[in-house]
Each structure stands twice: as C-alpha cells, then as structure tokens.
Specification:
The longest helix has 16 residues. By secondary structure, this protein is α/β, with parallel strands linked by helices. Helix 4 packs across helix 5 and helix 5 packs parallel to helix 6. It is built from nine helices and nine strands. The two termini are 29 Å apart. It binds adenosine-5'-diphosphate and magnesium ion (MG).
Length: 231
Amino acid sequence: MNNLISCKDISASYDGMNVLNNLTFSVNEGDYLCIVGENGSGKSTLVKCLLGIKKIDSGNIIMGEGLSQTDIGYLPQQTQLQKGFPATVKEVVLSGCLNSRGYYPFYTSKEKKSADESMQKLGIFDLKLRSYRELSGGQQQRVLLARALCATKKLILLDEPVTALDPLASAELYSVISELNQKYKIAVIMISHDIQNSVENASHVLHLKKTGYFFGTSNEYLKSEIGSRFI
Ligand SMILES: Nc1ncnc2c1ncn2[C@@H]1O[C@H](COP(=O)(O)OP(=O)(O)O)[C@@H](O)[C@H]1O
Ligand SMILES: [Mg+2]
C-alpha cells in the first residue's frame, strides 16, 4: 500500500500555546480517515499544517512519492459569502485547477476535460451551466467537491462538509464521498462532528483531545476506551 501522508511526532502552537502535541499517524492510498474531536481540539490547525498553511514546531510531515501539498483537493468549511458566489457551476469547478499551475487566466482543454469528469463523477454534469448561488446546499457541496477533485486524483481533504445540510442532503453527500473513495480509489481525509456516521464510513479515525489522541482503524476505535465512550 502506497503511503500518501505520514506525520511523525508533529507539534504546533500559537504564540507559545500548544495545540498539537507529538501527533503520529499516516494516510495510505485508498484510506478514508475521519478526524474528530471537540471544538478547539486542533482539527483545523492540523488541516492547515497538512496543507502547508501553518508551520509545525517539530516533527515531520512526509508526503508520498509524487504528491505535493498543492495536489491535495481541499474543500474548506463553507462561508455565507461562498453561498452567494455569482458564477456558473462550470466556472466554480474549473477554478479548482488554478491551484496546480499558478496564475494564468485561461484554461487548457485538459483542464476542461478534467472538470467535466469531476462533474460526472459527482452527478452534477447537467447542472453545468446553472448559477451556483441558485443551487440547494447539497448541490453546492457537490460542486465544491467536484472543484476539489479537479486539483487531485489522489487525496481530498474536507472540513466539516455536511455541517449546514439537512439529514437527507447529509446522507447523500456521505454516500458520494464513500463512492469517490471506493469506486475511484481517492483517499479521503474528513473533519466531522458526526462521530457515529464518520466511523461507519471511514477506514481510520483520528480523535484529537486537549490531552492525548487516538489513531487507528475504525474497528480499533470502536473497541478503544475513547471510542466506546463516544459511540
Ligand atoms: N490563528 C490562531 N491564533 C491563535 N489561536 C488560534 C488560532 N487558530 C486557532 N487557535 C486556537 O487553537 C486551538 C485549536 O483551534 P482549531 O484548530 O481551530 O480547533 P478545532 O478546529 O478542532 O475547533 C483553539 O484553542 C483555538 O482558539
Ligand atoms: Mg475547526
């Protein structure tokens, strides 16, 4: 199994306040890792470290062969501003390609093809010319997922993707994410508040706490002391 990301003993802090303490875990090809933990436990900080936006104080983050931090398809937590974004679905998805080649205002035919494929995988191809801001919350998240997919064939990183969705739309999004993982073999790292659902879908769990953490397979998590307390 090929390793995509390997974190060894990483620590991070803000102004001397430790947030991540000696964290060790890895993500391999095909894995689906869920990151859970209460507010303030450092989930978003960890994501920023993985994306290279935040510097770690010590330890190592080793990216697998052929993967760089800009090859990670990232779906940030949605803001109100993004919900009203005045662009077509196609434009939003295509903008996901920008990450990999710097600032250049025209898209290549290869990028357009990749955007079409991403939309097909997520079942939104017929929404291509629709206005993004007129879509439902669940459709918007699929568009942003297709956008993230444009940046990568290997790994997507999702920060609380279902938070603003109703239960039905959440269930649909979870199933699309599982399909990307299982059918298209894309590794997934997802931050979630919903431990129950996460463990059902994920292959691995990273549970962050103010002191200590758990990392292991979902099965190991269910049997662990911390896992059995939360499920
Ligand atoms: N930019 C920042 N400057 C200072 N402290 C921060 C910053 N971002 C987060 N923190 C603090 O770091 C801790 C972890 O935050 P965060 O990673 O956002 O946790 P989570 O995503 O799990 O809610 C919190 O105590 C938070 O207040
Ligand atoms: Mg957060």
